[in-house]
Write a structure and sequence with these properties.
Length: about 110
């Protein structure tokens, strides 16, 4: 393996922000910031037409500590997803970026 490739991998693997580059990651955080806790299936529907990508992204954000999962204490005992305090801080910054970019023509 060339030294350049190894160096590039070492540098990229240290950037945690790469998690936000994954498809729908920012969308998940901003939706939960706006709506508050959501049942998993409703969140998946809101994020994407395909459940697979949304499910993978939610699981990655849970593993990273940006989201929390809770089981409702009443029937139907559904699992809800919400922002953790760390996730809320990230979502607040992303919302500010959205505000800055609101006037930018794409």
């Amino acid at each position: 393996m060339p030294a350049e490739t190894t160096f590039r991998f070492m540098v990229t693997s240290s950037f945690r922000v790469e998690l936000l580059e994954a498809r729908h990651a920012v969308r998940v955080l901003l939706i939960l910031r706006t709506t508050g806790p959501m049942i998993r299936s409703a969140l998946y529907d809101e994020v994407s037409k395909g459940m697979g990508t949304a499910m993978a992204r939610v699981n990655e954000l849970l593993d990273a500590g940006l989201l929390e999962e809770h089981i409702m204490d009443k029937r139907p005992y559904a699992k809800t997803i919400s922002l953790s305090s760390k996730g809320n801080a990230v979502a607040e910054h992303l919302a500010k970026v959205e505000e800055i970019l609101a006037g930018v023509d794409i």
